[in-house]
Q: What sequence folds into this?
């Protein structure tokens, strides 16, 4: 009986550890995003692209509550499921095309974007993380802008994604 209780406790403790470890990788607030962008700066291109792909995939788990221009929150009346709410997702620019991942972005669009972000398609990654980002790209750039320079001059050739 003691061994059964011990095994049960070990299984539960492993589950709790994996849940707490997973929440550490999610970037929810503006401060966490700034720290992420700061750590991102010193990496080489291959590492940057891997980090960006992981960030895009982890951002799909974060729900950003919709707001009007005057910051009045819109409540979702129809969904009563638990979700992780955040306030910060960066704006991606791929060859002059802005890509902002919202709650309505389809899984297929995200998969296509993640497949495009590799060393064969991207030659450089730049970050705008200061007050110039929202001045240039608007309110969606408050959490920073990640500019992906494609190797092909016409990014439409490698970006068949319909974004709003």
A:
């Amino acid at each position: 009986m003691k061994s059964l209780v011990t095994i049960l406790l070990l299984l539960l403790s492993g589950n709790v550890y994996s849940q707490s470890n997973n929440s550490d990788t999610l970037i929810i607030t503006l401060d966490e995003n700034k720290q992420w962008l700061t750590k991102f700066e010193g990496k080489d291109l291959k590492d940057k692209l891997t980090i960006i792909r992981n960030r895009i995939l982890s951002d799909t788990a974060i729900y950003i509550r919709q707001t009007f221009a005057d910051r009045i929150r819109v409540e979702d009346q129809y969904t009563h499921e638990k979700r992780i709410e955040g306030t910060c997702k960066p704006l991606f620019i791929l060859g002059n095309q802005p890509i902002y991942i919202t709650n309505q972005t389809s899984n297929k669009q995200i998969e296509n974007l993640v497949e495009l972000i590799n060393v064969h398609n991207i030659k450089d990654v730049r970050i705008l993380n200061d007050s110039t980002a929202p001045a240039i790209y608007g309110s969606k750039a408050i959490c920073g802008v990640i500019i992906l320079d494609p190797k092909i001059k016409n990014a439409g050739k490698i970006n068949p994604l319909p974004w709003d």
Notes: The chain has one domain: 29-157. DSSP finds five helices and six strands in the chain.
